[in-house]
Amino acid sequence: MRPITTMAATFLLVSPLAAETGLPDEATVQQVLDDHPSVVAARARLEAARSRAAGLRRGPHEVTLSGSYTRRSVDIGGEFDEYDAQVTRAFRLPGKARLDRQIGQHGIAAASNLAEDARHQAALLLSEQWFDWLSASARAKVDRTAVANYEKSLAAITRRMHLRDAARLDVDLARAALAEARVALDRSEGGTALARARLEAHFPGLPLPIEAPDLPSPEISDTRLSQLRDLVVLNSHEIGAARAEAKRRASIADRMDKDRLADPSVGVRVFSESGGAETGAGLVFSIPLGGGHRRALAGEAAALASAARAQEGLARYNVEETADADLVEARYRTAAWRRSREAVEAQIAALRKLRKGYELGEIDLTDLLLGERMVHHAFLSETEARGEAMRAITKLRIDSHEL
Which has the higher per-residue pLDDT, 388 or 13? Predict the structure, then answer.
């Protein structure tokens, strides 16, 4: 059963300097994220915000042209052509144009942050499904190595039985262990295929190699983890979007308060009556007289501004929670991986002693196969712990925008 040594070389001697080798190419990832539907939609909403801001800069008022034409018939005077024409335009009162510009600018800032956050969420989804695939593939490699070990063990025990150095029961036990390992391999290979299919479905533009890359070792200092935690809050687009939305709502509330005094309309009117016998031109002026409706709209805008300020505070709480949770998870996942490495080394040392004892006839095959299973499970635990640690560290790096 010496092939277990090969398993140790494969899964324990992973270079800790290869922390980036388990990730896809950065340029490819950038393009894949840009093409993701959620990111495309967010960019479109950003363009909509820019167009809305341009409209707010120009203002809501346009030139209005109105007029009329009549043909009047008078018993004594006969028939006359009469007409009038009027050109009017409303003008924003002082302060309103400035608020409209602020509303547009804050809207762009909010949409820009939401677009970046959509890209951030797409990156998290890619990372999650990427490590689903890598972890499943790593488990399949462990199971494949275990199957190869059991196959060689079965062949060796069968030869010993033919030489009358082993009982038929030992062959049956070795065959049962091999069958169990093959079942585990079928499950892990199926999980690998499923994880790859999901990754390809969500990110069809990401070219995947035939074989998943090896899981790198999650080597990172605690100091660096703490630095990344602080960057999660500092670089949060969620907080930025909530802050910009709160400012936008505050500007809208100020705008609606000013709108309680409606904008006046000023224009020029010309007319001709009695077939041109009477003509004239003059200025026209109008202003709506605001009432309860405008006051209610201003109250609604003020309430929504207050709600937006509360949402900004909630966003900060959520991001703080995410940062703390990312840090805690990265720490304990990394610690668990280190313990799992120690467990693998201890199980391998124990297996060597069991092997020696079996060769000397001091223990039976059942104990040796139990040792083989424990080593197999130790490697599976190490692989799972390594994948979860890398997943947690990568999430922290993405949330901090370091990656």
Answer: 388
